[in-house]
Amino acid sequence: MSVALSCQSIVKRLGDKTVLQSLDLSVAPGEIVTLLGASGSGKTTLLRIIAGLYEPDEGSIDIGPYTVWGKGQRVPPERRRVAMVFQDYALWPHMNVINNITFGLKAQKLAQNEIAKRLTHALQVTKLQDFSKRFPNELSGGQQQRVAIARCLAARPLLMLFDEPLSNLDAALRDDLRNEMVQLVKREGITALYVTHDQAEAMAVSDRIAVMREGTIAQLDTPEKLYQNPADSFVASFIGGFSLLPGKCYGTRFEVDGPEAQCVTVKNQIDGNCYLVIRPEDARPANSDRNQFYSTVTSCTFQGRCWRLTVDVDSKSVRIDWPHKVLNGSRLVFALDPKQCLLVKP
Fold first, then answer.
1. CA nearest 338: which of 246, 289, 268?
2. Cα(284)–Cα(272) distance, integer angstroms
3. pLDDT > 90? residue 86
4. Phi and psi at residue 177, to the nearest 5°
5. Spatial separation of the C-alpha atoms in residues 88 and 95, rounded to whole Å
6. What are phi and psi of 292, to 5 degrees?
7. In whole numbers, what is the pLDDT of the chain averaged over residues?
8. Terminal CA-to-CA distance of the chain, rounded, Å?
9. Where are the domains of the chain?
10. What is the pLDDT at residue 321?
11. Which pLDDT does position 1 carry in this prediction?
12. CATH number of the domain located at residue range(s) 5-228 in this protein
């Protein structure tokens, strides 16, 4: 299998802190991989190392067929054929759209007909033909971000890097531009590495997601597999929306830590201490004695398609979706299908 990006044993230290710890990552051609993590997890540091803005202390980086770092190679940023879309757009305020897109191409001393061809293509695919003579302050936030993407496309990169490109946009525009951007990247066959701390955004844009924790990749998988089978309690808690109940597993029985010691049947086995993952949508009204939880409702909010309840289970807070409103303080019995009861390691 060919590889568009290969990072091997990347180590980065800042003072006494190791920001990246022997990190490995491979991205296939045309794939969109997202680095998802909290602030300080190392995702932006890795992105900037790949771009050549930072230097790693150890490891090697290959982009396409070229080694850009390691094995005696130190390729500068401008020669890596990497394009980056920044959070703040990074447009020249005194240049119109055309000049923002072509500035880098002119610096490379490309032929005028090649520059014109790349400009025309970039404007067409980003739908900016009607705005080509406007200046950044005459464009909306979404249009400015499209200019930043067009500038990257015109450079014909081997790899595009996105550093939280939608965080400055309002929610409705962010969703629209996100969908538009993913379709564009896929249509152009571009390999992309995307950085975000927003779980929903990562799920929407990615072929695979690398969940980062303290300079390492805790799990690298498709959005579906991350959601259905998180590797451990950290990944499960970070993906968002899940509740984790601590307890112990005995065969296929899980016993919740707490005064009532409630038990349920689970689909996988982990010896000893572990967590039960509860996805809000998996909860259902109890109609038998199997896999029931006895709880007390502590909050109830309307979500449109359902009510989101926060309930107390053996002094642990759990979020579940419910078909109707329930008053705070009410006792509630809900059930989980054993096939949906996943245990993860601490």
1. 268
2. 27
3. no
4. -70, -35
5. 16
6. -95, 150
7. 92
8. 34
9. 5-228, 241-344
10. 97
11. 61
12. 3.40.50.300
